[in-house]
Backbone:
């Protein structure tokens, strides 16, 4: 297949995923695993897991960075940029429409009936992906124990990034215990200086503020909202109510939750603010993945880094399970959502070749009609 056809294939796939990928990073990665590994066989489950693990070690939105990794595996650096841009574009366009409506009318349209059934369906997709990835990640008893410890830590409220890195450190420790070596290597986090001290809203300051957030952001979308509060509300750029409405838009739209930056940028400085905020928050991810992707095969060949990757991979699966549990508590609140979740779960396990888009779409339709009962 020529590179042009490969790039077209990448663009079509990630435009589709960017348009239907509701439910947060865990759901996005589950859909990618289904499309990229199971259906198209662009890579093995093991390599996909290595990419997931490596993505968890760097700042930025995990699922968006995974699209870039997948694109790079298929068509090199051009594939990386096409995949990332294609996945981000639908969310940015939808968010821009919401931002324009919000600016014009001062409130968001009510679309709750249409998304009522999406989250229960997404939980089923996540669980199926967790099952498939878990079979590859849990290679031995030690890794199973590490995964269980990580899961318990997350459920008890330990920060997901702390849990992830701790699991990687434990995996490294176990490696040295087995090999009876004492030469521990250390990893030092990079420091980022305060880029802005905003006193007024301007294009450059918007770009730099979101660039900083994109360069240091670890964790889930909820961590993003804490960063936005500290960076924008505290500095007087934004009211907390607008931030809350921006959070709502992030939950309503498919694709990466960082498209919230588009909504906020629009409120700060119109179309140019939306564009600069979007570029600023996503740019670091493109750079990080471009640098990291070629190193992952070397990391896997290194016994030391391989031990860390194995532990981080099983920790990533544990994090996905923890996310599913928390989503379940928040989502499965009545008989309607339980019916949607169970039906979706039966479909994804019974018909494992079914496209996740049909599960999401079916959940939305079923949820819409059930809200009237």
Residues:
């Amino acid at each position: 297949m020529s590179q042009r056809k490969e790039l077209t294939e990448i663009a079509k796939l990630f435009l589709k995923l960017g348009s239907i990928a509701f439910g947060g990073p865990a759901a996005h990665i589950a859909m990618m695993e289904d499309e990229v590994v199971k259906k198209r066989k662009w890579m093995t489950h093991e390599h996909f897991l290595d990419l997931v693990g490596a993505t968890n070690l760097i700042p930025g939105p995990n699922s968006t960075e995974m699209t870039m990794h997948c694109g790079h595996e298929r068509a090199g650096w051009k594939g990386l940029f096409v995949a990332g841009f294609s996945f981000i574009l639908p969310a940015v366009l939808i968010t821009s429409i919401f931002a324009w409506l919000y600016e014009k009318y001062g409130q968001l349209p009510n679309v709750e009936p249409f998304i009522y059934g999406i989250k229960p369906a997404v939980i089923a997709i996540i669980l199926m992906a967790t099952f498939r990835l878990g079979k590859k990640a849990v290679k031995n008893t030690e890794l199973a124990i590490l995964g269980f410890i990580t899961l318990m830590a997350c459920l008890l409220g330990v920060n997901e990034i702390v849990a992830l890195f701790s699991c990687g450190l434990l995996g490294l420790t176990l490696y040295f215990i087995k090999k009876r070596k004492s030469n521990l290597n250390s990893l030092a986090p990079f420091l980022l200086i305060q880029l802005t001290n905003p006193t007024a809203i301007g294009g450059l300051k918007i770009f730099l503020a979101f660039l900083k957030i994109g360069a240091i952001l670890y964790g889930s979308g909820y961590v993003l909202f804490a960063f936005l509060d500290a960076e924008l509300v505290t500095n007087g750029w934004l009211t907390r109510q607008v931030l809350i409405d921006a959070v709502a838009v992030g939950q309503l739209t498919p694709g990466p939750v960082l498209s919230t930056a588009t909504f906020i940028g629009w409120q700060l400085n119109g179309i140019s603010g939306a564009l600069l905020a979007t570029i600023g928050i996503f740019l670091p991810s493109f750079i990080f993945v471009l640098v990291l992707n070629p190193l992952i095969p070397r990391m896997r060949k290194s016994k030391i880094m391989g031990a860390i990757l194995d532990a981080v991979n099983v920790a990533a699966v544990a994090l996905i399970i923890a996310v599913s549990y928390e989503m379940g508590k928040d989502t499965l609140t009545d008989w309607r959502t339980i019916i949607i979740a169970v039906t979706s779960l039966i479909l994804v396990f019974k018909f494992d070749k079914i496209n996740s888009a049909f599960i999401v779409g079916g959940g939305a339709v079923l949820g819409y009609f059930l809200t009237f009962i």
In short: Residues 181-200 have pLDDT under 50 and may be disordered. The chain has one domain: 1-106+140-322. Residues 1-106+140-322 form one domain. Residues 18 and 87 are 4 Å apart (CA to CA).
